[in-house]
């Protein structure tokens, strides 16, 4: 899974942390760390930026609602 797989990342984060974490309250550094800890995630951390993290956060919020 790569940084550009925002919807899949959001779905996996929701499946793993949906009951415990509110994505609206996460800092981007925390979100990045959660993404990089996903079992199937294998992209370069240097390729991550604020725009990608915003997209993942919004997709996770949408997934939770």
Question: What does it look like?
Answer:
The structure is a single chain. With 65 residues, the protein is mostly helical. The protein is 55% helix and 0% strand. It has a single domain (6-64), classed as Arc Repressor Mutant, subunit A (Orthogonal Bundle), CATH 1.10.10.600. Helix 1 (6-17) packs across helix 3 (50-64). The N and C termini lie far apart (24 Å). InterPro entries: ISC_FeS_clus_asmbl_IscsX, IscX-like_sf. Pfam families: Fe-S_assembly. This is FeS assembly protein IscX. GO terms for molecular function: ferrous iron binding.
Summarize the structure.
The chain is built from three helices and no strands. With 65 residues, the protein is mainly α.
Task: Annotate the secondary structure layout.
Blueprint: H1 6-17, H2 28-36, H3 50-64
Classified by CATH, the class is Mainly Alpha
Helical coverage, percent range: 55-70%
Domain tally: 1
CATH names the topology as: Arc Repressor Mutant, subunit A
Compute the number of helices. Answer: 3
The major pleated sheet works out as: none
């Amino acid at each position: 899974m790569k940084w550009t797989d925002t919807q899949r990342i959001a779905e996996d984060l929701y499946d793993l942390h949906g009951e415990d974490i509110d994505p609206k309250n996460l800092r981007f550094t925390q979100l990045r760390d959660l993404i990089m800890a996903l079992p199937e995630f294998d992209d370069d951390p240097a390729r991550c930026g604020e725009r990608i993290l915003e997209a993942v956060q919004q997709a996770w919020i949408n997934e939770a609602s």
